């Protein structure tokens, strides 16, 4: 999957990727002026679709892009892409840029049509809640040098891309980020959870992190279960380094256990019991969203 024969959606039509063309004057290309989503789908079942579209609409409102598309229009596109490209484990990439103008000028142009693009790509199978079988993640940490509007899922991702690359070059899977007060924000493409003494913690929502749909679902599922204590609060990097468990969450990973941070083991260096419980509950409940 994911080659030039894939069927993608652009400018209101389905077509092979090789035929999909956008203008070089598109503001998505020139300015990264757009909003995107990645929605997971397993065996043609979309996870958290309504929540993803709601976040996309919040992003479009935040940057003043007017688009006449509702959740049913998006669902229709997503289902068509799944049908045309095969079921399996897919990420649906949905993208809206402000559109193409005839000149490059920073101010929002009037009377241009947003560019709508969507395609499907293969994602890994969801984790099985088994400590011995799940992929174990290693991460590094660095100061968060992105912009101050990280709650907007903007296509301007250079800050995230550079942080992700830092981790790659250090030979690890992800880079977790902290602000100038030495508090955890998120990772370059995931949210972060910390477990200490059976308490599950994650930073509160503000402009320093993306309101992850997986984060939101994990919190909701764990609160409904009621077995574990949950805290949304600022977390210092000292606490992160002293954690029993560390998790990354994202639509394509669900809950990913981290066993190494900055070259040191997290907790006892093995995947934890609380992760196993959380991923078990997540697997059982994710299709309710
Ligand atoms: N990344 N934080 C950032 C910076 C992200 O880019 C993502 C998602 C998340 C997790 O959000 P969610 O649970 O809604 O996927 C947190 C996507 C998958 C990406 O850019 O590919």
Automatic annotation (TrEMBL):
A single BP term in Gene Ontology: amino acid biosynthetic process
Pfam families: Aminotran_4
Cofactor(s) for this UniProt protein: pyridoxal 5'-phosphate
Gene Ontology, cellular component aspect: cytosol
Molecular-function GO terms, alphabetical: 4-amino-4-deoxychorismate lyase activity; transaminase activity
Catalytic activity as recorded in UniProt: 4-amino-4-deoxychorismate = 4-aminobenzoate + pyruvate + H(+)
Keywords recorded for this protein, A-Z: Aminotransferase, Folate biosynthesis, Pyridoxal phosphate, Transferase
Record-linked SUPFAM superfamilies: D-aminoacid aminotransferase-like PLP-dependent enzymes
EC number per UniProt: 4.1.3.38
Pathway the protein takes part in: Cofactor biosynthesis; tetrahydrofolate biosynthesis; 4-aminobenzoate from chorismate: step 2/2
Protein family (similarity comment): Belongs to the class-IV pyridoxal-phosphate-dependent aminotransferase family.
Function: Involved in the biosynthesis of p-aminobenzoate (PABA), a precursor of tetrahydrofolate. Converts 4-amino-4-deoxychorismate into 4-aminobenzoate (PABA) and pyruvate.
PANTHER family, per database record: AMINO-ACID AMINOTRANSFERASE, D-ALANINE AMINOTRANSFERASE
Name of the protein in its database record: Aminodeoxychorismate lyase
Gene source species: Paraglaciecola psychrophila 170
Upper classification of the organism: Bacteria, Pseudomonadati, Pseudomonadota, Gammaproteobacteria, Alteromonadales
